[in-house]
Amino acid sequence: MSKSLYVIFAMIFFISIPLPASIHADTDVSTGGYLEKLLTAMDVDPGEEAAAETAIRIGLTDENTDPAAPITIHEAAAIAIRSLNLRSPSDTPLVDARQFGLLEDETDAPLTPETMQRLLKNYRDNFERVTIVSTNDVHGRISYNPEDGELGMAKIAAIANRARARNDDTYVFDAGDTFHGTTAVNLGRGETAVALMNRVPYDAMTPGNHDFNYGTERLRELIGLASFPVLSANTVEKENKRPFSSPYMTFDAHGKTFAVIGVTTQTTVGSTDPENVKDVLFLDEIETAKRYADELRKSADHIIVLSHSGIAKDKQIAEQVDGIDLIVGGHSHTAIEKPLLHHGTYLTQSAGHGRAVSVADLVFFEGDLVGMSGSLVRDHPGIEPDKAMEALVEEEKVEWAEMLDEVIAVFDQELEGGRTAVRTRQTSFGTLITDAFRVETGAEAAFTNGGNIRAGLPEGPVTRRDLLNALPFANTVVVLELSGSDVEKTLEQSVSQFPGESGGFLQVSGIDYSFNAKKPPGSRIADVRIAGEPLVPDKMYTIATNSYLANGGNGYKWLADLPVVLNTGEIVSGIVERYMRREGELEEGG
User: Fold this and answer.
1) Quick one: which of 55, 155, 495, 566 has the fewest CB in 10 Å?
2) CATH no. for 405-583
3) DSSP string for residues in 267-310
4) Model confidence at 55, in pLDDT bands (50, 70, 90)?
5) pLDDT tens for residues 135-144?
6) Using one digit for the tens of pLDDT, what is the confidence trace for 474-525?
7) Residue 385: closest CA among 76, 577, 164, 161
């Protein structure tokens, strides 16, 4: 892909940078030297194409543009209008350009540095902007990981710093699932994530379903440690129906009041251990957003929703709740390349695992919200990590390194545990885990949900860090007593969404069965055997599983009503580590 001047010019509008002082009126706007100066002005290495790729990705231009072709004034104005992502655009970009004072009385002549300067000045001066920087579903990815495109907190902080340097009216939000997910944050039960977020600093977040993984009491403690409000209007105390945390916050910018409402997915009860949220209720997100929006419109000029509910639910909120200007989303890990206008409401979401940060401007003209410009910022060499944050991350890594890097097993082949695999079929790692459950507890059989497994294990030496990254959840291992009918019902639930991926798909040990995916869900299972013997419907079987499923997670509600014959009190990773050590004859400590 060529680095077109047309593309780079588009990016000037996107990030609202000043034109370099070194570009003079006699500079040829189609020369490579000019292009290099523009790239340098954007803090982008001339050999790095992140700026051009972003301009193409968000539709400001395309990769087929002739890099040597001159740009006319009207073409430049059209790029500017596209970059504004107007709420109510006309049919003709030039009409909008004149309405907002971007074009004066110039004819459509080739662009020169002088006319570019004038257009850029109008673009900067004719509008007021409130910048929203947002992350979601970071899941504890605090370290830089270029192989997976994970920015890490030091680069996330750098992106926030750059936005604040460009615009004093910048606010940094997170849409949840941040306190849990990797060993680096799980060992401190979320405290490391909070400390790093305080350093950025964030201005607000809403808790995601996995932020409840340590239980509500621990989440309350983490909220107390945060220097920013943690908002969830639809999470209430079960006993008295009072909000679990602050439902909303407000801030002022450009003489206007902005209200920010938080909502957490109502499916949290099914996607964290139900025991973790036994003392709270999750109210309907749409009804809650409507109730608070109706009330807050009396005092606020603009309403923003931080939503950990997924893109489908966010669209429903936009469709059914009046007066919301922006929904900063999470939960579905959706990459919205530029703010999406849906039923008059802008939606943003920045993928997940810290692989992108949304940087977008709410754009005001003569006091009215007219557009929202911006895009996702991904990793590229032009982002220098924040040094103070980088040092804090390294401190956390050093503190736990010796314990995490201890070798606990050596395998002669890789154990498969990738997301798609464990959610659609039996895998080698799933077999090891459930074998560990069965052997360590003495149960007749075992199962665990694929959603509890977040990675496989490598061939060769396996460290505790590898295991904890693969099994990050703090669920314990328990043994239930199931009838043969309950076992069959449970297996039917496991394959009910096949061939689609399901976090509830079961990895098993001591259980053999077949199923016919062409049959309707609920009637697919056949030929079930436990310990090699045909399943007997009224016979009772001891089955080892994790506490998340035992408490009814992933839709297995009937399991919560069954007797627990053994509660090991040990977390899944601990049980699996002990089994791996014994099978590999590897003693504690090496």
Assistant:
1) 566
2) 3.90.780.10
3) THHHHS-GGGGTTEEE--HHHHHHHHHHHHTTT-SEEEEEEES-
4) low
5) 999 999 999 9
6) 788 999 999 999 999 999 999 999 999 999 999 999 999 999 999 999 999 9
7) 161
Global confidence as pTM: 0.78
Cα separation, 306 vs 349, whole angstroms: 10
Mean pLDDT (whole number) for 530-537:
96
**In 3-state terms, what secondary structure has residue 154?**
helix
Tell me how far CA of residue 87 lies from CA of 96, 193, 339, 500, in angstroms: 12, 36, 11, 36
DSSP string for residues in 74-124: HHHHHHHHHHH-BSS--S-HHHHHHHTT---S--SPBP-HHHHHHHHHHHH
Q: Which CATH number fits domain 128-397: 3.90.1280.10, 3.40.718.10, 3.60.21.10, 3.40.50.360?
A: 3.60.21.10
pLDDT at position 34: 33
- Give just the sign of the alpha carbon dihedral 432, 434, 440, 443: negative
| CB-CB contact of 239 with 279 (8 Å) | yes
- Any idea where the domains of the chain sit in the sequence? 5-125, 128-397, 405-583
Q: How far apart are CA 404 and CA 487, in angstroms?
A: 37
Pair 371, 87: CB distance under 8 Å: yes
**Paired tokens of 336:** 């919205």
| Rounded alpha-carbon distances, angstroms, from residue 40 to 34, 45, 207, 502, 566 | 10, 6, 39, 46, 64
pLDDT at 50: 58
